[in-house]
Amino acid sequence: MNRLLQITRKDFTDAIRDRQLYALGALFLLVGLGIGYLAGSNAETASGVDVPRIGLGAMAFLGSVAAISMSYNQIVGKRASGELRVLLSLPFSRTEVVYGTFLGRLALVVAMTTGSIAVAGALAAVLGAPVSGSALLAAIVFAAGLMAVFVSLSIGLSAGSVNTTRAAAGAFGLFIVFLFRLWEGVPVAVRYVLNGFSFPSGPSPTWAMVWRQIQPIAAVRNVIAGVEPDLTVALVAYAPGLPDGEPYYVEPWFGATVVLAWIVLPVTLGYLKLRTADL
Amino acid sequence: MAAIELNGLTKRFGESVTALRGVDLRVNEGEVFGFLGPNGAGKSTTINILLDFVRPTSGTARVLGLDAQHDSQEVRRRTGVLPEGYKVYDRLTARHHLEFVIESKETNDDPEAVLERVGLADAIDRKAGDFSKGMKQRLTLGMALVGDPDLLILDEPSTGLDPSGVQDVRQIVKEEASNGTTVFFSSHILSQVEAVCDRVGILRDGELVAVDTVDGLRDAAGTQATLRVVADGVTDGAIDAVQSLSGVSSVTFSDGVLTASVDDGAKMDVVTTLEDHGASVSDFETEEASLEELFMAYTGGGQ
């Protein structure tokens, strides 16, 4: 455990020594200030959930992009440069390297997104706009959950890739699949093929509905619906709509299970690939 | 107990590349062992298996009595490694590097004392990115010494080093060995290991072709010494007579100097045979086969 946290600390402090990341940090700060200023300048008409909602929405995109771009090269890049061998010639295990790096990157991305939302809330409040404390807290927690998903996907990708080119292609794929919603096209394509290469008619079958709702951003949204419903609008651009009749697969508990799986499985699959790899 | 024990170690990469073919090797505790071979012979693959970067296709590797795969973390806790290329973290100071290693090995070494040993104490708070190649190597050597390792693995430690750096590495290897540390030293240049190693192993195309002391290798290789005789009045008959002696070969004569490859003990026969055939010998000298020639004989280099 000590060595795992040593890797985490190193990953985090490496980033702090990296001046390029300061530009990204400044961007998060600016976005937070911008949201706070906007809410503050419309203080009379603003509602208490505005800042948390806009903050969460902004972080769903900006935070996810940052999570992917800061993480996808973090292990495969070290593998290519030889740094991984240097680390592994010390008494670190591959488990410690992968999960330690995951935690380090997560801490970094969460610090940025949390900071951004908190700054937005603080500035709005100073400027006299109402800010719901519970909604702000929920926005921060759910943004962090979403970041954990994207850091897990990217670190898993990084650990499982044999070279940096493939990892970069995979990172691009993550953008397309999750942020540009290619995920939802999969059932359409499958049904098209199953239907003899013509577009199917009639309502979506259940499996297609479930598929859409286990997309990680949709799953986060479904959890939010059970906790702070006013915030769900924040993720409308990245998640499909809700089906009628509130089936089990849009229940918050189901969403929470799915989110947990999205946090645990990708990094673990990447680790399992790296565990047996020749470096 | 053996510090390193390889049994039938084989490694294939994909279908076509075989890096190691059934290597058996035992390196004793406290020994300084030189692991030699041309580039691509399988030295790095062997070291990578010892450190569990690479898994053998078949066979086993044991390090310090532990399984190199299953107990890798414990192996690496007790081993100091000077990796090839000595990569450092540009933004970290020498002190940071050592602190990181000290923490990972859970020891209480003093970074300054370690850097003192490798001659880098005055650069302790400088960033490693500004170091010369030699300084980077001293730093990584210092990192390898943290925690008083039972085994020191040096992978091509002299690449890109100036002569004083090479000398310092040798000095430290000797100090460590005298403290009972086993040293496993890989190189493609024989002269670098000759001075410090108790025994050497020569790897060629993934096979261990020889393991012996340097002297033992010289005997085993049967490489002959070169004899040069300065003589007047050497006739063709004299040369033929020398040629026909047992243990003598490659006889040439030019500018009053006769040169021949001779086995031990045959050299006086050459001189007396020449004199018997009327030549007057004014001087002779023998030159033992250089280790480099010996190495070439084993590795098939230079062909």
UniProtKB/TrEMBL annotation, chain A:
Q: Where are the transmembrane segments?
A: 21-39, 54-76, 97-129, 135-155, 167-183, 253-272
GO CC annotation: plasma membrane
Keyword terms, alphabetized: Membrane, Transmembrane, Transmembrane helix
A GO term, aspect molecular function: ABC-type transporter activity
Q: Which Pfam families match?
A: ABC2_membrane_2 (PF12679)
Against PANTHER family, the record matches this protein to:
ABC TRANSPORTER PERMEASE (PTHR43471)
Give the protein's recorded name: ABC transporter permease
Which source organism does the UniProt entry give?
Halapricum hydrolyticum
UniProtKB/TrEMBL annotation, chain B:
Q: Which SUPFAM superfamilies match?
A: P-loop containing nucleoside triphosphate hydrolases
Q: InterPro entries per the record? A: AAA+_ATPase (IPR003593), ABC_transporter-like_ATP-bd (IPR003439), ABC_transporter-like_CS (IPR017871), DrrA1/2-like_C (IPR025302), P-loop_NTPase (IPR027417)
Do you know which Pfam families this protein is assigned to? ABC_tran, DrrA1-3_C
Q: What GO MF annotations does this protein's record show?
A: ATP binding; ATP hydrolysis activity
| Keyword annotations of the record | ATP-binding, Nucleotide-binding, Transport
The ABC transporter domain sits at 4-230
| Gene3D superfamilies assigned | P-loop containing nucleotide triphosphate hydrolases
Is Protein biosynthesis found in the keyword set?
A: no
* Family under the similarity heading: Belongs to the ABC transporter superfamily.
Name of the protein in question: ABC transporter ATP-binding protein
Organism, as annotated: Halapricum hydrolyticum
